[in-house]
Amino acid sequence: MSQKEPDAGDADLVHHSVIKRFEQFFELQFERFRLPALFFFGIASVFFAFQAVQLEPEASFQKMVPSSHPFIQNFLAYENELRPLGNVVRIVVENRKGEIYTPEFLNTLKQVTDEVFYIPGVSRGGMKSVWTPNVVWNEVTEDGFVAGQIIPPTFDGSLEAAGQVRTNVARAGIVGTLVANDHRSAVILAPLQEVDPETGEKLDYARLSQRLEESVRDKYASEDVNIRIVGFAKIVGDLIEGAAAIGGFFGITFALTVVVLWLYSRCWRSTLATVFCCSLAVIWQLGVVRLLGLGLDPYSILVPFLTFAIGVSHAVQNISTMAVERMNGRSNIEAAKATFRVLFIPGSIALLCNAVGFSTLLVIDIGVIRELAISASIGVGVIIFTKMFLLPVLMSYLGVSPAALAHQARRMRGGHRWAHVVARVTDKRMAWGIVAAGAVVLALGHTASRDLKIGDLDPGAPELRVDSRYNIDNAFVVEHYSTSSDVFVVMVKTEPGECGAYPVAATVDQLQWHMENVPGVEGTSSLFSAMKKVLAGQNGGDLRWESLTRNRYSSNAAHRLLPSELFNSDCSMVPVLIFLEDHKAETLIRVVDAVQRFAAEHGSDGIEFELAAGNAGIEAATNSVIKQSKPLMLGLEYAIVALLVLWEFKSWRVTVCIMLPLFITSVLCEGLMAMLGLGVKVATLPVIALGIGIGVDYGIYIYNKLEHYLEKGLALKDAYVETLKTTGGAVALTGVMLALGVATWIFSDIKFQADMGLLLTFMFLWNMFGAVVMIPALASLLIGNRGKGAGGGIAVTGTMASPKALQANP
């Protein structure tokens, strides 16, 4: 048996006396409490597994929006009145063989309308279709106004009756809204209720989407009829459906992880113990999320996936250190203790930085992002327990296989030519070149990132792929209907009973004219658009009367003939509908600026302009919150991570060495997003935070080991060679493990998951490269040759034991 290395440990423990005492206490109790610890982890795992199996995917319209933003507050104040303009599903029933005015097609349309009417979650009173009684036609005749339903109760299904429907559609002026411009399809508008008034339960978007597919599309689509469905609820439903494939991706990642870990360690014991602990972390996380009353929405369903990858990437350090300590002659228990000692501070700080990367997302006032932050922070928290405490206990029992020890011996005896090549970055001339190259890359990334936009940059649902069924359906609606599905609503607030007064009418009319001249606006509509037609009808249909009137009696008479959805119950609010070409970021910015300028010039004590409702108004509010919160989030994350690094290493120079590569990666990520046409939105903003919090791990592990060898008296270059031989290989594998964990997302049917996978893969690999190359180069320039050695030999305090001798003395 060879002599044990007496100084195996972490140099940082010397500088942190309180932490050192805690670590020493744990070491003293390690052997005594191994069995109780296993019993505790076993009971806790069963409990959390029971909770986890009860967790179900969920989504909420209100969680997707910034609830405290003024736009959303204004919308919620009039939610009942504006429900048909908010969360609405549009079901398009298309006649593949011709126009809709055939008895057979109209009968099918009636059946679809009735089917949708009875779907739970639909606000039945707000439904609209050519079959619903709230859609009417009106006409001016010699006898005055004549009105009726588009399809009257006396409809008998004859050809004559179907022809009359064509006439009624023209009278009602619903071509382009409820009936396509080419008359080959019709729309059913189904507003949704977030809470079921009968049961009090939240709307289940997954079940609603499934019901729409099974009871509408699958049931009525045929060779003659095509069904298309669009709306926020359908987007969420498709996202949840696509997220079901995450299980397959997880299986692929799990298998790849096992293979890579075994290739690195050549030890089934270490590999299976690592995978087991990281799988427990996922189970604990899901159980805690369930106990907190949270769910898994389409945006946070990837978090357990990420938790597993993070856990494995950190556990690689345990595998590497355990093998090294066994080769230094320690028994299984002593090697497990030494592993805990060596990794306690860097591992804990790295995981805390991970948690910070997630928790800073809490400053963004959007429910799904905050729940993602909480869920991910919980995941990192449980990794601290399973990786830092459970894994050493398991390894103290399992040990390391002879094959692993032989593999480690070959690795330690190897020439490590690659380590000597990489370590040349510590030479002053090479270091200046690396820093200059980093500056150039930073400048290029910054130049590209200036084109980065906030919000969606594509029409339709950017969360889904361009060729997805939803985006194909949405493109059909945009092409065949005049009124866009992207609606921005301005609420004009007045004194009660005054919403129809002439000053209000004149101001709203000016607003509509003003907005119709804004690029990106297709048209506008309001109470007064309809009132003009009614006033003309009251005057014999003379188009010269199709204008606003100062006569209050005339306007009141017109009011009585208009749908109540054009104003609220006490006539103190008039919604102005602005139909947009799309909901791209640039379009929304132009619209919001134009409305706000108009409001500043024309607002008064009796007339207030409140923004905004409609799906485009809600999107504008979301973009605004993200734009305001992004600098604060990044500032907090950089500040807290930098303080944690400074606390560990007690040096601002070391902090700069570790943080600067992270900053470069963050800027490059934003430049890559701009080049790929990705905007900063709910789906992509978390990526930037995650890349910083997780990327700092590499730097912490690299410099912690480098500091260890510098403290032993080695020159910087020699110290870095030894660092690369031990931690360097594990860090490289960590980068690969994390990249593998998220790279499979790129093949997801859900585009935002694919985008997240691509960006995170880039950030993990680039952060690893920056840690291995830039940190030593910066250290060479900022810290210099701190080691006491003269750049020659390596101080060896013990001899390496043979694998056979180690197996004889476990």
From TrEMBL:
Keyword Transmembrane helix among UniProt keywords: yes
The record lists the membrane-crossing segments as 35-53, 242-264, 271-293, 299-319, 340-364, 376-409, 430-448, 632-649, 656-676, 682-703, 724-747, 759-783
Domain (Membrane transport protein MMPL) ranges: 176-425, 483-782
Keywords carried by this UniProt record = Cell membrane, Membrane, Transmembrane, Transmembrane helix
InterPro entries, from UniProt? Answer: MMPL_dom, Mycobact_MmpL
Asked whether the UniProt record includes Cell cycle among its keywords, one would answer: no
Listed GO CC annotations: plasma membrane
In the bilayer, the protein is annotated as:
Multi-pass membrane protein
Q: Where in the cell is it found?
A: Cell membrane
Could you tell me what this protein is called?
RND efflux transporter
The protein's organism comes out as Thauera linaloolentis (strain DSM 12138 / JCM 21573 / CCUG 41526 / CIP 105981 / IAM 15112 / NBRC 102519 / 47Lol)
